[in-house]
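In response to the reviewer comment on reproducibility (Comment 2.3), we provide here a single inverse folding case reported in full, input and output, so that an independent group could reproduce the run without further information from us. The structure tokens appear first.
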């Protein structure tokens, strides 16, 4: 017994010495960390030098008070109405834009993702399509909306096309990650069993990708729903256009109604999408 205790104590001492030796042998990077901190301090100081806050203007204070007043005293008739200018209809239009934009973008992203996956396509072709996806992602959604509005004119169609194009960039990137993480051993087993290419896709590829693809699409729908409101500012349909008009005309009770409608909608969609994605992640 005493011998075993002595051996355990000796092993513990040796392990502590080993950890201490490893710590002492670790590379000293305090110069690098100091340089990073100094660089961040310089960037913050340089950025702050161009930000000059002169206080709230009289108009700004009035607008802030008006928005608060509108939120606390919303127009209930507008919130519960059924006409094309009321909150429920505009919210449904916003949801429709987000749904169509997400569905079209998710479908169009599939060929882009497979063509840009390095484990499926030759590297030159994969790099070419990755560059196309990167070009799509570098242009903000508002800029896309301003370009497409010249083609389709103001309205929900512009919002759908804009969100479809923007969704391709983000969804393709997530799809590529899922495709490159495929377990190829399953495909090798199916190949050894003499399965056809269609059978290998049906039983080896799709089951591995479907959960990730659905989760990514739901996540993008959550983003598109919020973007649909912003796109309405430039005339791409949805509740954003009416909200901006009410802000410009200082109809604060109507502004409050639109804000309450958006908050309730976003909370419901956020809760539902989180539950669905968690179930998909857990299988």
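Designed residues, in position order:
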């Amino acid at each position: 017994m005493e011998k075993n205790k002595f051996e355990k104590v000796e092993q513990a001492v040796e392990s502590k010495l080993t950890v201490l030796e490893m710590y002492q042998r670790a590379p000293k990077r305090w110069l690098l960390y100091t340089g990073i901190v100094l660089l961040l301090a310089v960037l913050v100081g340089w950025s702050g030098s161009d930000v000059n806050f002169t206080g709230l203007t009289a108009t700004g204070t009035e607008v802030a008070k008006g928005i608060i007043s509108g939120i606390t005293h919303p127009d209930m008739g507008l919130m519960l109405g059924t006409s094309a200018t009321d909150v429920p209809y505009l919210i449904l239009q916003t949801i429709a834009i987000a749904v169509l934009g997400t569905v079209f973008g998710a479908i169009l992203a599939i060929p882009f993702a497979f063509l840009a996956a390095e484990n499926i396509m030759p590297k030159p072709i994969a790099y070419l399509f990755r560059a196309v996806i990167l070009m799509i992602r570098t242009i903000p959604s508002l800029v896309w909306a301003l370009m497409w509005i010249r083609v389709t004119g103001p309205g929900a169609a512009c919002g759908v096309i804009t969100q479809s194009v923007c969704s391709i960039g983000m969804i393709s990137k997530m799809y590529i990650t899922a495709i490159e993480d495929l377990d190829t051993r399953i495909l090798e087993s199916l190949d050894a069993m003499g399965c056809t290419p269609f059978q290998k896709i049906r039983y080896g590829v799709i089951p591995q990708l479907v959960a990730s693809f659905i989760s990514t699409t739901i996540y993008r729908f959550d983003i598109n729903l919020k973007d649909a409101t912003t796109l309405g500012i430039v005339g791409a349909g949805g509740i954003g256009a009416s909200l901006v008009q009410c802000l410009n005309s200082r109809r604060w009770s109507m502004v409050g109604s639109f804000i309450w409608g958006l908050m309730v909608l976003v909370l419901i969609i956020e809760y539902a999408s989180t539950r669905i994605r968690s179930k998909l992640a857990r299988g």
